[in-house]
Structures are given as structure tokens and as C-alpha cells.
Amino acid sequence: MRAVVTGAAGFIGSHLCQRLLSMGWEVVGVDCFRDYYSPEIKRKNLRTCLSHPSFSLIGEDLVASNFSFLKGGDYVFHLAAQPGVRKSWGKEFNYYLQDNILATQRLLEASLEKGISFFVFASSSSVYGNSPNFPLREDSRPLPFSPYGVTKLAAENLLRLYYENFSLPSVSLRFFTVFGPRQRPDMAFHRALKAILTGEEFTVYGDGSQIRDFTHVEDIVDGVIGAVEGARAGEVYNLGSGREVSLRDALSIMERVTGRPLKLKFVEAAKGDVRKTLADITRARKDFGYRPRKTLEEGIEQEWYWIKSLYSG
Ligand SMILES: NC(=O)c1ccc[n+]([C@@H]2O[C@H](COP(=O)([O-])OP(=O)(O)OC[C@H]3O[C@@H](n4cnc5c(N)ncnc54)[C@H](O)[C@@H]3O)[C@@H](O)[C@H]2O)c1
């Protein structure tokens, strides 16, 4: 089977490519190495894949591509995006429009033209916003609280209408705060573990009582693969851990796992950050047997080893 993975050099995309290769797929990775964070880190993310004979890398921007890499029968895993809630305000919004909405629309058009087998989209818990009801269910009304969330919801809606109008088979998977090795440098666990390593202060936005459903990247990859096998086309699924943890508690686990203290600096809560996320994962469990397995402790330990190798030479 042939997969096209967009955002292949990123945090989650690189793990997905590795998994597909280990399952015997031919994988075409597409990434334009945006400098939202160091392209050098992205190249490192792809090191294992690049040495695999069934992997090829296309360094194209989906906003400008002619999609000649796409073939009939392909499975498309669309993970390329401009991520991050905090940066999505102001002038930066243009990047979110381009990479999250326009790129998705162009890829859907090309997928329709080529006759792909299935289209999987990496959506986000950010589409829910500050919901009053927990756990978050897919049938609750999405009310994004950040411009980023708005663009992910717009892309989900594009998938839905290409399915309803043209029967392009697709599914949107709402990832909940993903962690583990290769986590993006702007994300809290990466910043905190780096601060533990260097002895610098870690900036907490708000008082640290915000709650997140932290999900290990391997569990996310399990869910993505499971969705290809058993998800209903046209549907939306949560991929979370179903476990709620405050940022403060997660930071304490990091201190315990690393055996080192973390210095905290508190600043005002960031605009667009929600108070709480917690996924109801019943739908994914019923339809494709999704069962997250990784504990927070083991994932933090793995991410810690990776952070040390990344920053200690
Ligand atoms: N990390 C999380 O916790 C999380 C949570 C919810 C949803 N998501 C979604 O999962 C996906 C992957 O996230 P990530 O954390 O791995 O991000 P990432 O930034 O590490 O990876 C995204 C990759 O997409 C590439 N890209 C961006 N625009 C592109 C374009 N126009 N053409 C080609 N390549 C382009 C970037 O260069 C980058 O390497 C994103 O769609 C994100 O919105 C992530």
C-alpha cells in the first residue's frame, strides 16, 4: 500500500511515517520545512525514514504544489499544518489560513482528481474551545476559542463537504495534546524538560491548574492506523488518552522522572488557551478498537531521553 504523509518531517508525521514503513507500506513524505521551529530538528526527525528504501521525501509546499507525487489508490495522511494556539493571532493568522485551510482545500481537490483510496486529516481538540461539558464528545457543538482552532474546524468542514458532495472518503481525527519524543519546541513538555536540563526558568501561562488530556504520540499513531482500517468515512473521532491531568501535576512528574528540580515563572494565561480538555474516546474504541496504552510517566521518560540527546550534543 502507498501512503502520502504530509507534514512528514514534523513531530507526529515523522512517527507515523516510521510506523507505516515498519508495516511494509511505501511512504511518500511531503514537507516544506517551515521555520516555525528549527528545520534542523525536522531533518533529525526524518533521519531513520530517509535511510529506508521504501521512503521518499518531497520538499514541496502544499499551497503551491502541482501534486504530481499523488497517485490513484493512495492513502493520504494530511498532517501538514501551521500548529500552535498562541501564535495564531494578529498578522501570523495568514500562515494559518494558508497552511491549514488553503493547503487542505488544494490537497482535497487533487485527491479527488487522482482518485485516492482514503483521506485522513489531523484535526485538533482546539475545535471544542471552552466547553462546559466533559468529557468532550464528537457530537457536541464545536466552538473554537483560538484562530488556530477556527482553521482546524474549517478544514474538517472541507473534508465533510468533499465527502458529501463527491463521496471522497475521509475522516477527521481530533488529536489531544500530543507528547513524547520529537515534541515541538513550542509545546509545554518540551519547554519544561529543556528548562530542567539547562536550569533555566520554565514559563507557565496562567497558574498551572489548566487541565489537559495528554496523549502519547505512539497512541496517536495507533489511532491513525486504526482509523484507516475501521473508521466510518465522513466521521470525526477524538484521539485522546481519556485521562485528565493538570499542568502542575505533569510538571511534578517531570521533576520525579528526571530527579531534578524545575524553576517556574508565572505569566498571564495566553489568549486562546482553554481551561480544560478531556476526550471521550468511546467512538474510536467502538469503531476501530482504539485503546491508548502509554502512561504519562513512561512518555515523559522517553521525551526526557530525547531532549537530552537533542540538546546535549
Ligand atoms: N502536537 C499536538 O499536540 C497536536 C494536537 C492536535 C492536532 N495536531 C495536528 O497534528 C498535525 C501535526 O502536528 P505536529 O505537532 O507534528 O506539528 P509540526 O509542526 O511538528 O509538523 C507539521 C509539519 O507540516 C509542515 N508544513 C506546514 N505547512 C506546510 C505546507 N504548506 N506544505 C508542506 N508542509 C507543510 C511543517 O514544515 C511541519 O514539519 C498538525 O496538523 C497539527 O495541527 C497536533
Structural write-up:
The chain starts with a strand and ends with a helix. The relative contact order is 0.14. By secondary structure, it is of the alpha/beta class. It has one domain: 3-Layer(aba) Sandwich (Rossmann fold). 40% of the residues lie in helices and 17% in strands. Helix 1 crosses helix 7 (217-230), helix 4 (93-114) packs parallel to helix 5 (147-166) and helix 6 (188-198) runs parallel beside helix 8. The strands form four sheets. It has a seven-stranded parallel β-sheet, with helices on both faces. The structure holds nicotinamide-adenine-dinucleotide. Nicotinamide-adenine-dinucleotide is lined by residues 6-7, 9-13, 30-34, 36, 42, 61-63, 79-83, 99, 103, 122, 124, 175, 177-178, 184.
Descriptive terms for the model:
40% helix; binds nicotinamide-adenine-dinucleotide; alpha/beta; 10 helices; globular; 17% strand; 313 residues; Rossmann fold
Q: What name goes with the CATH superfamily?
A: NAD(P)-binding Rossmann-like Domain
Question: What is the overall number of helices?
Answer: 10
- Give the low-pLDDT segments: none
> Do you know the CATH architecture?
3-Layer(aba) Sandwich
In helices, the fraction of residues equals 25-40%
The SS-based structural class is alpha/beta
Distance between the termini: 37 Å
CATH level 1 class label = Alpha Beta
Number of domains: 1
**Bound compounds:** nicotinamide-adenine-dinucleotide
Major β-sheet profile = 7 strands, parallel
Number of strands: 13
Provide the succession of SSEs: EHEHHEEHEHEEHEEEHEEHEHH
For this structure, the CATH topology is Rossmann fold
Average residue-wise pLDDT: 97
Q: What does the radius of gyration come to?
A: 19 Å
Oligomeric state of this protein:
single chain
Beta-strand content estimate: 15-25%
Please state how the strands of the largest beta sheet are arranged side by side.
3-2-1-4-5-6-11
